[in-house]
Amino acid sequence: MTGRPKLVLASGSPRRLALLNQAGIEPDQLLPTAVDETPRKGERPRVLALRLASEKAEAALDTVRKDDALREAFVLAADTVVAVGRRILPKAELIDEAAQCLRLLSGRSHRVYTGVCLVTPAGAFRRRLVETRVRFKRLSREDLEAYLASGEWRGKAGGYAVQGLAGTFVIKIVGSYTNIVGLPLYETVTLLAGEGYPVHFGWLNAT
After folding, report:
1. How far apart are CA 155 and CA 121, in angstroms?
2. φ and ψ at 7, to 5 degrees?
3. Which positions are catalytic?
């Protein structure tokens, strides 16, 4: 490879892109992937997060290998799973799903798992799993109705976005905050740096 290696983010999530940008990293291309996110029978949340991250990376890799300009790029993928015990909560698309999630999370602790998968230009797969514990306050009827009306829950694992209005529901976080948002920055940047990606390249022009 000559010059700075390229980075492909196998996601269309604006949250993951914003987190990478926060770390001074600008992907050269976004390649959102469509994989079946249905948990397998008896599959644990942590296993699901890693499996889906790996499947997203593999799906993007198929496209990358067919593109001469991207063939030697790093491919980064991630998937976030919210769980109460071994119960996996959906990425809420319907208001009833979001309401069910929020009622379950109200007044109790849950765990957020993000699987991160990095494929190196040499084709090696590197994976990390990050777990964060989150405790919600007991949600009042007004909390629930107003949050559902906001629409912020749509498409979010567990039916909420911690970086938005739902941040007011959080009593305690044990672990990585950025993991809850969708991409654990410390682990992701460490993974990239360990495989030779110049994570500080964008810092030189930061203001």
Report:
1. 31
2. -130, 130
3. 79
